[in-house]
Amino acid sequence: GVILLPITILGMFLGGFLIKKFKLHITEMAKFACITFIVAYLLNLLYFTCSCEVLQVAGLTAPYSGLKHLSSPKKSFMASCNADCSCKLDQWDPVCGDNGITYMTACFAGCKSSTGMGKNMVFHNCSCVKGQVYGVGNSSALLGQCQRESCTKAFPYFLALQTACAFILALGGTPTYMIMFRSVSPDLKSFAVGIETLGGRVLGGLPAPIYFGALIDETCLKWGTKNCGGSGSCRVYDTKAFRNVYLGLIAGLRAGCCLLYIVLSILIMKRFK
User: Fold this and answer.
1) ∠266-207-192 over CA atoms, to 5°?
2) Res 80: pLDDT
């Protein structure tokens, strides 16, 4: 937000400045808005190159055998190393083992003791961690999830791409509004603004959280449990499925918008030729 808000404001002001500087006709504004939206759409497809590996959670996305990946994840949280610990499946207080794998709780890591308090708590003599590192290290675990290096490395590129897309979209935002004002008769301008706002809310603002949320929920691997029972928030997502569903839906919706922009440009050029 700190980065995108100034960039968006700059793009909107620059779009208005270009209209005034070059005294763009309505047909030229239509071409300008159409080009910026198509360029932003093509840049948006580059989001698919930004990848972040799935969090390796023992028994969920990584087996207790020590392998890093599962071909078909099976939710078997119990193993021989923690079978006698009476761990509760509805708890989520993750710890990061020396082997780089996250465990749902210190209990599932088979830890016997701990030192420190709060965020600095360290668990020792963890039988599941020891079994996976084959004696290497002190078989300890730190409170919190393990860091994913690929996510940290990809984030600056993702942020730069998001900034470029936001700037280009904002650049074409002002010409789009000017097209509406110049193509509608004076007595219908306020009505046109109302219809445009209503269309945006009805088609995008209101239903979008529902169908986006439903699709995102389908990529959840581990749901939390509320104290009073029932499903809580998602603890672990399948990040690859999340990316494909989320970005794929956006790409599909924007493809339709691109088609409408092209049709709009053609109609305006015919009408105001």
Assistant:
1) 40
2) 85
